[in-house]
Design brief:
It is a single chain. The protein has 783 residues and is an alpha+beta fold. It is built from 11 helices and 40 strands. A hairpin with a 2-residue loop joins strand 37 and strand 38. Helix 3 packs parallel to helix 9. The longest helix is centred in the middle third of the chain and has 20 residues. The protein is elongated, with a radius of gyration of 35 Å. It starts with 32 loop residues before the first strand and ends with a helix. The N terminus is likely disordered.
Length: 783
């Protein structure tokens, strides 16, 4: 069967009159032009032509319709015939490549590949007929009927064929001396040809045969890969370059990738050896062995060697306490979490979002633990709106108290990430906010409690009503409040009602929006489709697909966010479980992640709890910060510290700590994040450490990497210059701020070097700098 690769429909049109944009005349696209006589040499003319009869035409042509630099036109007279043929010495590595089309439904039109003996006699043939008579098949020939009567299916016929394979069944043991590729037109048939060639294919001439296709290693081992290079042809191969290609993800690293072979005799076999380091465990590769591939003279070879790589290093278990920090009135619920009068009041915000959060933090600090709070900052904006309606000043006090709490608590190392409760945003189209003057309370449409269902478009930083724009607007607030935090760049979030987006299209939009603002971790899996967000141990954290947060990526070349889930399926719930239950659930995780030898299994693991601070009740009522669940959490953390943390089996961490550690182990390519702020001057110069995640990824002169670093979002409006320093010396500098997504790119080529980011920021100077830059750009365009 004739293979057609990507048919291209050629559309022709004749424009008799008319103009295009700006009054310019439209140019014809379909017309062919005769090439100069010298172009005949490229097509081996006239020697490659055999013709009979009268009225035949053959000529090189050009034109946009060819979609190629030039072509060859064959036009048979009404009673004429043309054959265009190319010959090459027969060998196993010959490849025939064509791209042509026949222009008529009538006459003769066919293509043939034939094997000839030394005298030029045809020994065997394989052909395809497009118009005209179909020859009978014989023991030494085969013809495929590709004839189509319809006059609306013209297209380019593109194919690649291997004569040795095609003709072998029909040679019956006979030895071919020459291969011939022929196109024939007759009785008024026309053909246009842009590719028509017979050539040696290095990837077919040489075969790479592994001694062992499957190997095993422990991370850090040097593995010896052996393969034989075999000359499959009947001729001497004077020079061949064989290169080992390291797999994506850098699981295998070769010291000397390129091997050169000289004067390889026909049929000769030589042994090649590569020393390859097992650089990363196969768990990084979705638990599939790493594959080394090869190329011959730059062309891919159909050869793979797999290496299963184990990791003998103990892993790490992170204990992460997460909660959604928001307020509730409690009206309509059986439990009185608030005053239950049907309106949120400033006091409820202060107790639930400041008092309870700080109490939880203090309990955690007593044991060396940290909280991750996902804060519904749209509620703070609603409080600011309520202040414009109220005369009491209480809403401003509540909003200020939340802001001051986040600053002081973030400085202690607790994480405050954004929790996108879009329903409270006073500026988002479609929202409603109601104010009750008598109670000094507010209410919103809680049926718009999520994110993606309220905001459809992806957008950019300047489009507030897009997912990217509103996420940027809130994340920059979190970044500013946590500017002095020892955590550096915050990389995780959880959206309201887990409304990340359902289905590939929406989830891909949300994933890209997260990445644009510098977020790497999400905790919304399955909740985004109305399911249960928690997961069993072993499925608690993974690199998701770019368009599906509910599934781990199958290919490390196509990954999205790091997704993490509360654990286990019946998760640790700080607001409802006694200490003994929470202890037992954590014990299950430790057991699951520990080997029979008592060591933590390799990799990065998580025991992740979940609650809402507003649901954590003291005694006797919702305003109390003593006893009740506060005491249960205190007892639980004391148990974990004594039994596991002090024994170096468990690490108290924030969600960003865990996600960064996960990326450091599993990321397929280096990730650059800004770290702790090292200094800040009165002149408006802030310096940050730069973290390069991807601990096992080779970073050296042979493996340089371009990385993208986010500049703190809250400096976007005031920053006018960014400098990347390497060991204290400028490596990269730009005055072109802000960039579209507040990031810069630079090259890292050493693991030993220390990188840092300096941001020069002053709103007035930034405005002047951008004005000057705009003028320069206008001048350069005119020039």
């Amino acid at each position: 069967m004739m293979r057609k690769i990507i048919p291209l429909v050629v559309l022709g049109c004749m424009i008799l009159a008319g103009t295009g944009c700006g009054g310019s005349k439209m140019l014809p696209q379909a017309g062919l032009t005769a090439q100069v006589p010298g172009a005949q040499d490229a097509w081996a003319l006239p020697g490659a032509i055999i013709q009979e009869g009268e009225g035949n035409v053959y000529r090189p042509v050009g034109g946009a319709a060819l979609q190629a630099p030039q072509g060859l036109e064959l036009a048979a007279g009404g009673k004429g015939r043309l054959q265009y043929s190319l010959d090459i010495s027969a060998d196993t590595d010959i490849v025939a490549v064509i791209r042509l089309q026949f222009l008529s439904t009538q006459g003769t039109g066919n293509i043939k590949i034939a094997a000839l003996d030394p005298s030029g006699k045809e020994l065997a043939a394989v052909g395809w007929v497009f118009t005209g008579q179909l020859p009978a098949n014989t023991a030494h020939s085969h013809w495929t009927d590709n004839r189509v009567g319809a006059n609306y299916k013209g297209d380019w016929l593109t194919g690649e064929y291997r004569p040795a394979e095609l003709l072998a069944p029909y040679l019956d043991g006979l030895q071919a001396q020459t291969y011939r590729l022929t196109v024939e037109v007759g009785q008024g048939q026309h053909a246009l040809i842009t590719r028509f060639a017979l050539a040696n294919d290095a990837a077919q001439a040489i075969r790479i045969v592994p001694v062992n296709q499957q190997l095993t290693a422990v991370r850090g081992d040097t593995v010896r890969m052996e393969a034989d290079i075999v000359n499959r042809t009947n001729r001497l191969i004077e020079h061949a370059t064989v290169e080992l290609a390291e797999p994506a993800g850098y699981g295998l690293v070769a010291v000397d990738k390129v091997k050169t072979v000289e004067n390889l005799q026909p049929g000769e076999k030589r042994r090649l050896v590569w020393d390859v380091k097992a650089q990363r465990p196969q768990s990084v590769n979705r638990n599939k062995p790493w594959q080394a591939s090869f190329s011959i003279n730059g062309q891919p070879a159909n050869t793979l060697i797999e290496v299963a790589v184990a990791d003998n290093r103990p892993g790490k278990i992170y204990y992460v306490m997460t909660e959604d920090l928001e307020a509730i009135d409690g009206a309509g619920y059986a439990k009185a979490w608030g005053n239950q009068n049907g309106w949120l009041e400033p006091h409820e915000l202060t107790v639930q979002m400041v008092g309870k959060a700080e109490k939880l933090n203090a309990i955690a600090e007593a044991h060396g633990a940290k909280w991750t709070h996902y804060l519904a900052w749209p509620l703070v904006k609603a409080a600011e709106w309520a202040e414009s309606q109220s005369t009491t000043g209480e809403w401003r006090k509540a909003a200020t108290a939340i802001e001051q709490s986040v600053r002081t608590q973030a400085n202690k190392g607790h994480e405050y990430g954004i929790h996108m409760h879009s329903d409270y945003d006073p500026y988002l189209p479609g929202n409603v906010l109601s104010y009750h003057k008598g109670l000094n309370g507010i209410w919103a449409n809680h049926l718009r409690h999520g994110w993606s269902h309220s905001i459809a478009s992806e957008g950019n930083f300047n489009d507030y009503s897009s997912r990217t724009g509103i996420l940027y607007s809130y994340q920059r607030i979190m970044d500013e409040l946590a500017a002095a935090s020892p955590q550096g760049q915050l990389v995780t979030t959880r959206v309201g009602s887990f409304d990340f987006g359902a289905g590939p299209e929406s989830e891909a939009i949300s994933t890209r929006a997260y990445q644009k603002v510098g977020l790497w971790g999400s905790s919304d899996a399955d909740g985004n489709e109305g399911g249960i967000t928690s997961g069993p141990y072993g499925s608690e954290i993974y690199l998701a697909k770019p368009d599906d947060i509910n599934s781990a990526a199958a290919d490390i070349k196509q990954t999205g966010l790091v997704e993490f889930r509360p654990t286990p399926r019946n998760f640790i719930a700080y607001d409802s479980q006694p200490a003994v239950v929470m202890n037992e659930l954590a014990d299950q995780g430790i057991t699951y992640f520990t080997s029979v030898e008592g060591l933590v299994k390799p990799g990065v693991h998580g025991i992740i709890g979940f609650t809402h601070a507003m649901f954590v009740m003291g005694e006797p009522d919702w305003q109390s910060l003593e006893q009740g669940q506060f005491a249960a959490i205190d007892s639980h953390l004391a148990y974990l510290k004594e039994r596991y943390v002090n024994q170096n089996k468990l690490i108290f961490a924030t969600a960003s700590d865990m996600v960064k550690a996960y990326l450091d182990y599993y990321t397929p390519k280096p990730v650059a994040l800004y770290g702790v702020r090292l200094s800040q001057s009165a002149l408006g110069i802030s310096e940050y450490a730069v973290e390069i995640l991807g601990n096992d990824i080779p970073i050296d002169s042979a493996h340089p990497h371009q990385v993208t670093l986010k500049i703190p979002l809250y400096l976007r409006d005031s920053a006018y210059r960014a400098v990347i320093e390497k060991n204290g010396q400028p490596l990269y500098s730009t005055w072109g701020l802000p960039t579209p997504y507040n990031d810069v790119q630079f090259i890292v080529d050493s693991k030993e070097d220390k990188y840092s980011l300096k941001v020069y920021h002053n709103e007035l100077f930034a405005t002047i700098t951008r004005y000057i830059t705009a003028i320069k750009n206008k001048i350069s365009k005119k020039e």
